[in-house]
Amino acid sequence: MSTSIARDIQRLAGLDEPSTTLLRSFDLEWRCGSRFIKTLLLAGYNPPIVGTALTEALPRYRRMCQLGIADYERLKFVLGHLYRRSSRSTSAPAPS
Q1: pLDDT tens-digit profile of 52-86?
Q2: CB atoms within 10 A of CB 25
Q3: Residue 37 in contact with residue 17, Cβ under 8 Å?
Q4: CA distance 26 to 78
Q5: Among the residues of the chain, which ranges form H helices?
Q6: Could you tell me which of 96, 1, 93, 8 has the C-alpha nearest to residue 54?
Q7: Do 50 and 41 meet the contact criterion of CB atoms below 8 Å apart?
Q8: How does 47-85 read in b/e, with b if 16+ C-beta sit within 10 Å?
Q9: What's the rounded Cα separation, in Å, for the pair 19 and 10?
Q10: Distance between CA atoms of 54 and 34, rounded to whole angstroms?
């Protein structure tokens, strides 16, 4: 039996339950975005940094949904926030 991408991300990044619930909503709309986040974690990006970035971005994503912000803008916000948080730290995996 396979687990959902949201549960995998929760486990890998150490997300709390409220953030995981928001991540499930994001996953329903943007499966490709969830896959990308999971791939970052599996590639070796720092899980606490990714988890913190998601915990910060997902509540705003929900507000953007409620305000009727365009789909693409919401996706760009979440992935952009993840990028900014990751690039400010040394969370990138070491080159092979």
Answers
A1: 999 999 999 999 999 999 999 999 999 999 999 98
A2: 14
A3: no
A4: 9
A5: 5-13, 17-29, 31-42, 47-67, 71-88
A6: 8
A7: yes
A8: bebbbbbbbebbeebeebeeeeeeeeebbeebbebbeeb
A9: 8
A10: 11
